[in-house]
Amino acid sequence: MTRMIFVNLPVSDLAASTAFYKAIGFTQNHMFSDETASGMEWSDTIKVMLLSHDKWASFTSKPIVDAHSAAQVALCVSMESREAVDEITETAGQHGGKADINPKQEFGDVMYGRSFEDPDGHVWEPMWMDPAMAMQGPPAEAEIDA
After folding, report:
1. How far is CA 41 from CA 6, 18, 57, 90, in A?
2. Cα–Cα distance between 28 and 47 in angstroms, integer?
3. Which residue of 24, 113, 139, 141 lies most exposed, with the fewest beta carbons within 10 A?
């Protein structure tokens, strides 16, 4: 079986978050959606479960972090081009998210990335990497911070 990732995110307004994720290119899987959760799909291997705070609380007793004021995770996803990085970031900013919450990552012709927050402050980092670098690693002269 192909490995997949299922990202679970607590959201304060399920309808608004569902609309936001649809705007940036996710589709809703209604088989995994109800009044407490929206199953969102970005690809065959990347799924996001948007969970109401009550639903989230049924999985853990830990408090929900306010992602607007505390960093918890950055979800880095690959894109097919620099233009696709720009498009998703700008679309996020136009649909209730916040674009460019961190500085752009520009590494010449080998790597490019931006960032955005969803309406609840969860950080996404779309990035493009030259396919040759993805397979072989950066050239010796490239200055890419790890």
Report:
1. 9, 11, 23, 20
2. 10
3. 141
Q: Are 68 and 96 in contact (CB under 8 A)?
A: no
Q: Between β-strands 46-52 and 37-41, what pairing exists: parallel, antiparallel or unpaired?
A: antiparallel
115 in Cβ contact with 102 (< 8 Å)? yes
CA 40 vs CA 6, 73, 98: distances in Å = 10, 19, 20
Q: Are 89 and 101 in contact (CB under 8 A)?
A: no
Task: Please tell me what DSSP assigns to residue 69.
Answer: T
**Distance from C-alpha of 30 to C-alpha of 39, rounded to nearest angstrom:** 7
Instruction: Please give the C-alpha separations between residue 103 and each of 1, 22, 85, 115, 117, in angstroms, as whole numbers.
Output: 37, 25, 14, 8, 13
The pTM (predicted TM-score) of the whole model is: 0.85
Residues in the chain: 146
pLDDT digit of tens for each residue in the chain (146 aa)? 788 999 999 999 999 999 999 999 999 999 999 999 999 999 999 999 999 999 999 999 999 999 999 988 899 999 999 999 999 999 999 999 999 999 999 988 889 999 999 999 999 999 999 887 666 766 665 555 54
